[in-house]
Amino acid sequence: MKVGIIGGGVAGLSAAYELSKRNIRVTLYEKSHVLGGLASFFPLDNGFIERYYHFICLGDNVLFSLLDELKIKNNLKWINTKMGLFYNGKLYPFGSGFDLLRFPHMTLGEKLKFGFALLEIKSRKADNWKNIENIPSSEWLIRKFGKNIYNILHEPLIRLKFGNYAPILSAAWMWARIHRIGKSRNKITQKEILGYIEGGTKTLIDSLEAEIIKHGGEIIKGKEVNSVELFPDSKVKGIKVDSQIIEFDAVISTVPSPVFLSLLPKLDGTYWTNLKKIDSIGVMCVLMKLKKSLTENFWLNISDRRISLAGVIEYTNLNPCYFLNGRRIIYLPQYISSDDERFSFDDNKIISQYLGYLNIIRNDLKEEDIDAAYVFRDKYAQPICEVGFSKIMPSIKTPIKGLYMTDSSQLHPDDRTISNSIELGRKAAKLIFDDNM
């Protein structure tokens, strides 16, 4: 049996690995010269760094099992991280119950409500999210935490991450995000524990690539798939690359659903209609290498109307990146539609604007404190999981025989993490194996 895989992100590599282990002939196509997708990396100084930030939580069990299987689990490191909140011009610690008690902009009653809400969200069973899927996140958060807490913490996050989509965001998505982070501490008074892979995502990606090749799989980088070819009887034929059709018994697309749709002829039916309904928002992320630390926090939430950032992530407060010789790495993400004019701004203009945001947080930070800065963009970073999303969420198996697809929207209500992407690839591989063996 021959299987073609479109896309060399984590889900695509996971599917290729699982299939190749079963002696199924796999060919994976990645248009970039670097594997990893949103988990890809680039050389910096004497090492490599991810284009977008990643962190690992205590509940990422699928990732742990894969690291163990690849014999790289010793590269997994855990750190007690700090979280902060920049609220209306002032920086506050906000990573523990004691920090919450000291925060001056909530009443004692609000703080107690906040603590009980977090405990309830953390303990809610995974399948109970369906009870809140049809509720807008804002309505659910206000009911759960109260209006003041919502305005301070949640409204800025949702507005800055989802823009015009904010009013239709499902409460289930917000619950899953809080639930995952909550599992990284055992008690509300305990500090947060987060993990990273020594060597970054490159360690994982390189190991997967080596294992796929060892098991007879083929990985072709720098080749963009032109189309998915079908037989007249609604069965997959293969993939067209460089005007040549390569036939496969099954094809898995792991690229974002709008890209997947662009590879296909016009198709009718509920599955394809629903797939077209799924909207995505892009991301523009600035990575800065600084000569000094910005704050002591790994994650700094922003609640200040002057700063249009979803957060400030000082990655070296999680992963020390010793190859940087004391330099600091920060990620500055901004979620905007690829149609927004800001998405196409000149890199220098964006870097200058973001430095202005950092000056609000720390006014002694100067341009000469920046060793290097890079701007990364992705058109399809985050699917919009709106109210009632599961009604249109696509299955991995499409109506076309032999054609499968994975997309981060299928993780609903969970977020797109490395662990979840690995599981998505495993599910696609298992479906192919079960359907054909």
UniProtKB/TrEMBL annotation:
Q: Where are the transmembrane segments?
A: none
Recorded GO molecular functions are: oxidoreductase activity
- In terms of superkingdom, the source organism counts as Bacteria
Residues covered by the Amine oxidase domain: 10-360
Pfam families, alphabetized: Amino_oxidase (PF01593)
Q: Which InterPro entries match?
A: Amino_oxidase, FAD/NAD-bd_sf, Zeta_carotene_desat/Oxidored
Please state what the protein is called.
Amine oxidase domain-containing protein
Organism, scientific name: Candidatus Schekmanbacteria bacterium RBG_16_38_11
Cite the source lineage.
Answer: Bacteria, Candidatus Schekmaniibacteriota
